[in-house]
Amino acid sequence: MNKPLHKELLMDTALLAKRLRQETSGEVMTDSASRGRYATDASIYQAMPIAVFIPKTAEDIASAIQIAAEMKVPVLPRGGGTSQCGQTTGASLVIDNTKYFRNVLNLNIDKGYVEIEPGIVLDHLNASLKQYGLWYPVDVSTAAQATIGGMAGNNSCGSRSIAYGNMVHNVLGIDAWLADGQVAQFGNYANSSGAAKQLGDFVKGLAHTLQPEIETHFPKVLRRVAGYNLDIFHPQSELPYTQDGSVNLAHLLVGSEGTLAYFKSLKLKLAPLPKHKVLGIVNFASFYKAMDSAQHIVKLGPTAVELVDRTMIDLARSNPSFKKTIETALIDPAAPTPEAILLVEFSGEAHAPLLEKLKALQELMGDLGLPGSVVAMPDASLQKNLWEVRKAGLNIMMSLKGDGKPVSFIEDCAVPLESLAEYTQTLTDVFSKYGSRGTWYAHASVGTLHVRPILDMRRDGAQKMRAIAEEASALVRKYKGAYSGEHGDGLCRGEWIYWQFGPKITEALAQIKQAFDPKGLFNPGKIVDPPKMDDASNFRFPPSYRVIPLQPALDWSAWNVQNNPVTEETTAPGTGGDPAQGLAKAVEMCNNNGHCRKFDAEVMCPSYRVTRDEKHLTRGRANTLRLALSNQLDLQDESSPLGSDAIKEVMELCVSCKACRRECPTGVDMAKMKIEFLSAYKKRVGHSLRDLAVAYLPKYASTISSIPLLPSLLNLRNRITPIAKLQEWVMGISAQRSLPIWKSNHFWKQKTAHAYQYTPAQLASQSNGGKGVVLLADTFNTYFEDENLQAAIKVLEAGGYRVHIPCKSKNNPTTQNTCSKEFCCGRTYLAAGMVDQAKATLGELVDHLAPYAEQNIPIIGLEPSCLFTLKDEALVMGLGELAVNVSKQAQLLEEFLANEAKAGNLKLNLKAAKQEVLFHGHCHQKSFAAVTPALELLKLIPNAQPKLIESSCCGMAGSFGYEAEHIEVSKQMAEASLLPNIRKSPDSWVVADGTSCRHQIADGTNREAVHIAKILAAHLQ
């Protein structure tokens, strides 16, 4: 557990914060929740910062360094916070470069270089370079969130280092602030001057004195990132630092982990984008054979040879985001999972020679006794998808439930390729000796395998970690490898620098640190004078870690398990010993990998994309929850850690998009966690009038619609501005937002509504060919947009289906229309934290649907957020097997129709489209992989050629976009990509299945978006 700040330090912190606020334009944070969000990275370590500073300008950073120096406060520069070894944790002033300090300063296409600020993310840089046919080729797996500054700090490598080298081989220059505040230019040594020249001369003297030691102790493999690059004057790597043999002083800073200087800008060497790539995936029944084959495969000249082991394959197959993609890599998906696969990539200017390379790979594997073991993948899109799964590998492996997790501490050992198979076999035996098993993946091309033994760091993991490290180090020495081969030193490998280099070089590294940073204020405790790797005071889960007992509102027992480190089997749900009944363990699934910081694709995380604030990020929320549940925050109301103001602050902009449920590699489900927060918070502070209006809408909607003239009166609000402003003042519903239009002649008042009532037996009857379905009438598609229900019925009946629409009957059975009200999914109650009410109303619906589910009758929904409540929240609300059975039949209209069309059961006579069709996927559609079926269904319309709008959340998210305090953020989310894409196609159909999505599009573009049912009905002949 992190110790509370002493009184003296609190005073210093207050003064530090005061000076930063007065003397800079940056953002300053000193509260425990904000500091806690920066206390961890993707390692096993945690250390509370003294304060967090987010600079807006370079001048802000210079001032912060000067202030910190005067106050003797350590400084820790931070990028994406994705380090594996604890490099970005420390009791320091943490300076976050990622929000503002992320610009391209100069691009020289002719000379092939770019100058950037250190906070720019690799994928963002490469996206801007793509139009010029260039890229920065140090392609780390965390490219979507890793910053260039962090990559340089760690000397990152990436999958294609066999072709392009490490970070150090691709940095041409660094301008950096030194400890005394001056900026020094580190570049070519022969042309250097000033402070850089003086420091270079000092290092050169050390290097010449220690040349015999350097030649003896520096590993000769490409992957060596330990310590400082003292060998720049006498290069030892198999790939020289520079092509012409010159010395570049910037290479001394690469891999220095923020301990020598603070990067101001970096000059990077660019490479031409390969015009073509092909991939050969070799399947191995033997892990040893895979490792032994790598040395032969590299002779074919690949740009990458990447390992994926059985554990990762199986975990990927269990994740709906990755299952289909990983199975494209398998010779036979129906056969037992291979022990390993190797992804072998060839790239070049022409495609035909690469196909010959693939043939050569197939012939080679035949010569090695494995004919027919290669999956040839020349298709670029399939390759891209598979590489995305490979990039997510480390985080996929962290998705094991239970306290045992693959732990990073020997994962970067690099050995010569000819020794790789023997090394991995012997290390496997070591793991077995200590009751564990390793997970393996990564760079077989260069002898660096990311191996992580599964250890329980809350119990005996630290002792086993030490024992395994001792034996692994002996193996690395035996095979003349490098103990630190990619992810740096940090807290977990710093102590092994002495082991790798010996006393004289270790002393020289301390002298370099002293010369650059005389007061020792730049990221202390890394590289020089590091702690022991198993110092429990630095652990995220030290022996003193305790979870506060509480009873959550939802059922989290599936996470409350323990696992077997060898078999990966988990105990029964509810047996994991979590005082929070599984909620804490679900929160702790976040390993801080930062995948939620991505911008490039899919949805996660919408609020971060708008704000770039750590607190409005899945990782930031999970960290805050973990700290609150383990009593590590200074909470005003300790009796309600879940319902505290600290949790409210991070949940404020969570739009419950469910993207993290699917896209987070470790499966952190923040949408459900927000329900837990709302339940606890609203019990503490009570519900507002707006909460009640939203929550009980399904209750009173039928009443309002049945009172003559009342719907028309309520609709005046959209046309009379003073009424809208009065409502904003009273209820907090933004006057800038239009409200849904009430209908007096809603669905239940239609003469035909009563006709859609069938028993399960009637729907399953063979007299109708068994083509019966249940169609859910949700509140919005009943009272506000019943034309969607009518369209869905029209389409289903055109396809030959008998339709049952669940409803509650009137008391008077003699009336013509016996339906008075729809069943409710409880979604609006959950949005207000009313879990008990949601359970009651959802239970009614499940009870009604259960007999239909038992007959395997499809249960179809139109509104994604309602339908997927049956497949998600309904399963954790104590509704038992009935809910499980119903969930198996629940599907959106497009999912059902697309599957029926594939099976040959659906024949719709559709006329050709005359307009372009754009499709926007609701967040929950994306979360449950329902976008592809929608596009497949739209393709049934001749000439439709639907195009998917690549967008994150639309920004409405139920009631979120109506709320006055969130209106601007809501608009920003929509303007990120959705609305601009629609404006570019003024004559197109815009299809969006979500009620709120259609509303956002209407308000933001003055365009009508339609439900997929409506466009299908419009094209029926």
Question: What are its keywords?
Answer:
globular, 5-stranded antiparallel sheet, 7-stranded antiparallel sheet, 42 helices, alpha/beta, 27 strands, disordered N terminus
Topology:
Elements: H1 7-23, E1 27-29, H2 32-37, E2 51-54, H3 58-71, E3 75-78, E4 93-96, E5 104-108, E6 113-116, H4 122-129, E7 134-135, H5 148-154, H6 161-164, E8 171-177, E9 183-186, H7 194-209, H8 211-217, H9 250-253, E10 262-269, E11 271-272, E12 276-284, H10 287-297, E13 304-309, H11 310-317, H12 323-327, E14 340-348, H13 352-367, E15 374-377, H14 380-391, H15 393-397, E16 404-406, H16 420-433, E17 438-443, E18 448-456, H17 461-478, H18 496-516, H19 583-587, H20 606-611, H21 618-629, H22 645-651, H23 659-663, H24 670-685, H25 689-695, H26 697-706, H27 710-715, H28 721-731, H29 760-764, E19 772-775, H30 779-783, H31 786-798, E20 802-804, E21 808-809, E22 819-821, H32 827-831, H33 835-854, E23 859-861, H34 864-867, H35 880-889, E24 890-892, H36 893-902, E25 917-920, H37 923-927, H38 931-938, E26 947-948, H39 967-975, H40 978-983, E27 989-992, H41 995-1005, H42 1012-1018
Parallel strand pairs: 2-4, 3-4, 19-20, 19-23, 23-24, 25-26, 25-27
Antiparallel strand pairs: 1-2, 5-6, 6-10, 7-11, 8-9, 8-10, 12-14, 12-15, 13-14, 13-17, 16-18, 17-18, 21-22
